[in-house]
TrEMBL record:
Entry-linked Pfam families: Aminotran_4
GO biological process, one term: carboxylic acid biosynthetic process
Protein name according to UniProt: D-alanine aminotransferase
Catalytic reaction equation(s): D-alanine + 2-oxoglutarate = D-glutamate + pyruvate
Keyword Nucleotide-binding: no
GO molecular function, one term: D-alanine-2-oxoglutarate aminotransferase activity
InterPro entries according to UniProt: Aminotrans_IV (IPR001544), Aminotrans_IV_CS (IPR018300), Aminotransferase-like (IPR036038), BCAT-like_C (IPR043132), BCAT-like_N (IPR043131), Class-IV_PLP-Dep_Aminotrnsfr (IPR050571), D_amino_transT (IPR005784)
Subunit note: Homodimer.
PANTHER family: AMINO-ACID AMINOTRANSFERASE (PTHR42743), D-ALANINE AMINOTRANSFERASE (PTHR42743:SF10)
Cofactor: pyridoxal 5'-phosphate
Organism whose genome encodes this protein: Thermosediminibacter oceani (strain ATCC BAA-1034 / DSM 16646 / JW/IW-1228P)
Keywords (A to Z) from UniProt: Aminotransferase, Pyridoxal phosphate, Transferase
Family the entry assigns: Belongs to the class-IV pyridoxal-phosphate-dependent aminotransferase family.
Amino acid sequence: AVVYLNGERVDYADARVSVEDRGFQFGDGLYEVVRVYGGRFFYLNRHLKRLQKGAEEIYMELDFGLDRLRDVCKKAVVESGFKDASVYIQVTRGVAPRQHAFPEKSSCTWVVIVRQAKPQPDEFYENGVKVITVPDERWTRCNIKTVQLIANCIAKEKAKRAGAYEAVFHRGGIVTEGSSSNLFIVKDRKLFTHPANNLILHGITRSVVLEIAEKLGFDVVEEAFSLDRLFDADEAFVTGTMTEVMPIVKVDGKMIGDGVPGEMTRDIMREFRKLTETVDE
Ligand code: PLP
């Protein structure tokens, strides 16, 4: 892996932060995961924009500057030599004696880690995956991509123990999103997904899928729906930077549609694949 810590290249083994870093003590930080295909960034600017918005939400000034972060990301990918890579970006409010209220003076800790991408197995995309549903036990500002991910981690662990690919959250029976993905269903040839409000992360892949759907002339309804609608869907899929567009064929052991990836899902997957071969921004 190639690691940059506060703008400087460091050896992986030397890449350390303070025990008084607020990211470590409070989860007081944000992150992004960006995908690189064939040496081309896949919507890096959308990720940086989301990071900036998240920073504003938590009153954190990105004191190093987004342009510098963008430059470091690009440099690190080139230096890694990886054509297909994941770029992990983490920013925290920095180091200060432990006090809940924000330090008057601190500078951000910021990290960029580039790794070779480990794509999901082809058979997952070909045959679809199973998911389980779990109560959404997160706070109500899920639009902020904070590093406080314990509820997401517990949900993913439950999925893993159930032999499922993903855990889908529901808040009082209303489906929100996956533990690290957004969820779409298809019913009567219409696409449904939770509106981009405070209860879900506004996924970059979600936004790309909405654009694909528009291009394909699919009707899209950004409306909250219940668990019953999920079980009763004709098709379902989750989206995410590393997940891409992943068809779902079973929810809590119950078959979705015919138990194979749906037609509209496959159309979207095909268009998504095309974008990964061309997008360079
Ligand atoms: N929802 C949650 C909770 C996530 O953690 C993620 C990604 O990690 C997503 C959705 C998908 O977002 P993106 O498409 O920007 O990767």
